[in-house]
Every structure is written in C-alpha cells, then in structure tokens.
C-alpha cells in the first residue's frame, strides 16, 4: 500500500480508460499522455491495464507502506527517495516506510508514477481512471489517502534504455485531417488554421487545449445540433478561437469541428506549457 502525503495541483489514478460507453454519454478519459503512462508501466513490468498515478506539475509525496518497485515517466521531475536523488525513467526499489517526493518539472505537465502490480483503487464502469469532467471514477487523490497495490504484473521490468523522454519544446506541430464541418468555414479560415502560429492558452486542462490567434469565421451563421466528438476534434466556438479536445473530452458537443488532430500527436500537446506555439499541418492522404 501507499499513503499519499501531498498531491501538488492534481494527482489522479489513470488506466486505459472507459471504452465502449460513449454512446451513453460517458467520456473515455484515461491518461493525458498515454505513451508516458505505458512507459512507466513497462519499466516496472506491469500489465497494460494497470493503473498509474498521474501527477500535474510535481509536488507529490507518498510513503510506501510495503516494499515496492516503482518508476516515474512523463514530465521529467526530480525524484527523491528518503531525500536522496534517484533515477527518473528507471525502476527503483523502495523499502517499507520510504518516502518518495517529486519536484516541479522544468518542462512538461504530466508525470506518471507506476508501482509494480498497479494501483488497486475501486474501478467504476470497468476503469480506475478519474474522469475530471463528469466525476465518474475514483475521486482525485488527497493527502492521507491509502492506495492499495494490485497484482497486474505482466513480466520482468523493462530496461531503463527503453526510455523515450520528453523534449523541452516551445513550438509543436500537429497533423490534422478535415473535420465533419470543415466546409462550414470560409476558405480563408481553412487556410488560417494551417498557416497560423497559434498560442496555447493558460485555460487548458485534461479536457481540452484552448488556442489563441486570428478568428476562424463561418461562411454563414448556422445552428449545429449536438453531435459526437472524438479525441483530437478541433471545435470552433463563437469566439472563433479553436479548442482541441484531449483525453478527458466530452462525448458530444455543439460547436462545429473544422479538423481533427492525429491522436498520436496529442500527447505532445497535452504536455505543452501555456505560451507554447502550436502549428497545424495537413496530413497527407494515406500516410500515418
């Protein structure tokens, strides 16, 4: 078991998310940066569906109440065990009673703590993911909370050289395909989407990334019935400023979707700090 001592801005449990519930209005959720979540699990030999602890901008302190193997991936935080620096991006053994602390990362937002066996909080609708939009799932972690360790082990821990680290990027490029309402926008707006250096707003979270730049204008004012949303959808509200939907996006929305970001590019956006320059590029047909 693990006792949470401090959480920083936000700490939640995340696994693969709630697949198959979107038609009932339940978001998928899951980790903001799925590759880093998966990497942390691989570093301790966990099964793919094991839950990790997703930590926003460091500040986490936990006490191990039993011996455990752990690893940290994602935003590159300083890691200390009983006050002594230990490796980031590698498996580390903690004795019972050891205290782990994470510093604020110099860049990136989300770090992932994996413990061998996974975090065994009570699942809801088949997932241990915290859904910050609907409130479904275990609530965010709080100081004093004790989290059990499960048994979702797949094999031996991966070598540390499997690490794929984040880069300090202040300018990111995202591939896009036309959205279902692409033709609702003027030709100028369609070109502005891919020619503008957009700025990532501070009003960004697990649900969506908000961008600022020139206004994207519709050909004519139109009413849109609520329709389904997928991860990566770029909605344009009446302000004309695009919103890119991330891991915790709602399953439906009422603003037109001008384009959709390739899902494999979204972790880079999810890890970007406010002020980052975001550019969209058209995805070549038939290319991954």
Explain the overall architecture:
- 8% of the residues lie in helices and 30% in strands.
- It has 3 helices and 20 strands.
- The relative contact order is 0.19.
- A hairpin with a 7-residue loop joins strand 16 and strand 17.
- The chain is mostly beta strands and 288 residues long.
- It starts with a strand and ends in a 6-residue tail after the last strand.
- The model has no long low-confidence stretch (mean pLDDT 92).
- The protein folds into 2 domains: 146 residues, Jelly Rolls (Sandwich); 112 residues, Cyclophilin-like (Cyclophilin).
- Strands 12-19-16-17-14-13-20 form a 7-stranded mixed barrel. Strands 7-6-9-4-1-11 form a 6-stranded antiparallel sheet, with no helix packed on it.
Which features would summarize this protein structure in a list?
seven-stranded mixed β-barrel; elongated; six-stranded antiparallel sheet; Jelly Rolls; 3 helices; mainly beta; Cyclophilin; 30% strand; 8% helix; 288 residues
Report the sheet with the most strands, covering strand number, pairing sense and barrel closure. 7 strands, mixed, barrel
Number of helices: 3
The 3D shape can be described as elongated
For this structure, the CATH topology of the largest domain is: Jelly Rolls
Question: Could you tell me the number of beta strands?
Answer: 20
Q: Which class of the largest domain in CATH terms? A: Mainly Beta
**Mean pLDDT level:** 92
List low-confidence stretches.
none
Strand arrangement in the largest pleated sheet: 12-19-16-17-14-13-20
Strand content: 25-35%
String of helices and strands:
EEHEEEEEEEEEEHEEEEEEEHE
Measured as a percent range, the helix fraction is under 10%
Domain Carboxyltransferase: 23-288
Pfam families: CT_A_B
Keywords: ATP-binding, Hydrolase, Nucleotide-binding
Protein name: Biotin-dependent carboxylase uncharacterized domain-containing protein
């Amino acid at each position: 078991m693990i006792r949470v001592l401090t959480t920083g801005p936000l700490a939640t449990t995340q696994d693969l998310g709630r697949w198959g519930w979107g038609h009932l209005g339940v978001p998928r959720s899951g980790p903001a940066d799925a590759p880093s979540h998966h990497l942390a699990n691989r570093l301790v030999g966990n099964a793919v569906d094991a839950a990790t602890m997703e930590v926003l901008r460091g500040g986490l302190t936990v006490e191990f109440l039993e011996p455990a193997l752990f690893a940290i991936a994602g935003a590159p935080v300083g890691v200390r065990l009983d006050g002594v620096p230990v490796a980031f991006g590698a498996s580390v053994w903690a004795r019972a009673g050891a205290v782990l602390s994470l510093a604020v990362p110099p860049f990136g937002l989300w770090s992932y703590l994996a413990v061998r066996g996974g975090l065994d909080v009570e699942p809801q609708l088949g997932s241990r993911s915290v859904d910050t939009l609907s409130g479904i799932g275990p609530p965010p972690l709080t100081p004093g909370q004790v989290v059990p360790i499960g048994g979702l082990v797949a094999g031996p821990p991966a070598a540390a050289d499997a690490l794929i680290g984040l880069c300090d990027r202040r300018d990111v490029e995202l591939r896009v395909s036309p959205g279902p309402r692409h033709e609702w926008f003027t030709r100028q707006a369609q070109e502005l989407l891919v020619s503008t250096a957009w700025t990532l707003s501070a009003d960004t979270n697990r649900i969506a990334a908000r961008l600022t730049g020139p206004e994207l204008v519709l050909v004519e004012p139109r009413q849109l019935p609520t329709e389904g949303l997928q991860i990566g959808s770029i909605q344009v509200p009446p302000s004309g400023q695009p919103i890119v939907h991330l891991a915790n996006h709602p399953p439906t929305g009422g603003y037109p979707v001008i384009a959709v970001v390739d899902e494999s590019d979204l972790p880079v956006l999810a890890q970007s700090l406010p002020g980052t320059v975001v550019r969209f590029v058209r995805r070549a047909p038939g290319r991954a």
